[in-house]
Design brief:
Elements lengths: L1 E9 L1 H9 L4 H11 L3 E7 L7 E7 L2 H13 L3 E9 L2 H13 L7 H6 L2
Antiparallel strand pairs: 1-3, 1-4, 2-3
Amino acid sequence: MNKYILMGKNSQETAASMLNKPQNRKELNKPLFDAFNVKIIEFLYLNHPDFDIFVTIEAENDEIVAAATNLVYASGAFSFFTWFRAFEAEEWKNIYHIASDNMASYISAKQRAQED
């Protein structure tokens, strides 16, 4: 399973709905997470001006996360909603190891411009 970060900003309509009837959205959204076979690691609300929800999950692949987040964004519950993959330190080291092994095959635009 891969780790992912979901971040969003609740819409004004969602905020008004929460004021009118406070809800535990983690609990209410559990069936959606289960439908996509997604494990919730953290479900946090923040007092940040650009986003107010931060969720860490584990999911099988990017396509599942893209499908789920597109569904959520299309609902209108968020004015902003995004996701990205997260890597453990060892995974990140391995990514750089692969890049390092193949570094000689890359020619930057600057290098090319300086040739001749």
